[in-house]
């Protein structure tokens, strides 16, 4: 998992208006938590054990326990493993693969961020990300392969993208994480003694 303090959300503004990339930092996260009834102070006291206690399935509990996410983005990545699908491996086991350590593509915006890291412009990164979203579930991925070659995307990243058959948006995964955090926060607030922990943004 990448340990970056901020991530991007790319929103489609409609056919004629293009897309906008929003940089999501700790201030945005605090506002999001409050908007969903979660006190940021309570959030900072939550641990991976608290998430395991309210997880909705045994598979989710196993992945959370294995990865032990410590901050908001690690938690979001862990939840994303439940929704991203690959051809070569079960999504929840992807983190065990060697390629995952270098290119953990779990949501569409990961493609955008990796392209920026590779030196592509924002416009190029958004265009490629949107094209991937449209063609990621094609039975025949020849069009997607051609586009990756056209953009001269590094082979290692291309192979991961071509292996994906379902790729959610980060905004959707944040919404799923908020549901989990809401349940965990309620349980923590009910506990007789709130645990002390450091700020984990």
Structure explained in plain terms:
The protein is mainly alpha-helical and 201 residues long. It has two domains: 1-83 and 171-192, no CATH class; 88-167, no CATH class. It contains eleven helices and four strands, in the order ββαααααβαααααβα. The protein has helices spanning 26-35, 40-45, 48-54, 58-67, 72-80, 98-102, 108-117, 122-135, 142-150, 155-163, 170-190, and strands at residues 7-12, 19-24, 85-86, 164-166. The protein has a two-stranded antiparallel sheet. It has a two-stranded antiparallel sheet with strand order 3-4. The protein is globular, with a radius of gyration of 18 Å. The model is unreliable at 197-201 (pLDDT under 50).
Helix and strand content put the structural class at mainly alpha
The number of strands is: 4
Distance between the termini: 15 Å
Please report which band the strand proportion falls in: under 5%, 5-15%, 15-25%, 25-35%, 35-45% or over 45%. Answer: 5-15%
Order of helices and strands: EEHHHHHEHHHHHEH
Number of domains: 2
Question: What summary fits the major beta sheet?
Answer: 2 strands, antiparallel
- Tell me the overall shape: globular
* Distinct helical segment count: 11
Order of strands, widest sheet: 1-2
Helix content: 40-55%
**Mean pLDDT value:** 90
In the predicted model, the low-confidence regions spanning at least 5 consecutive residues are 197-201
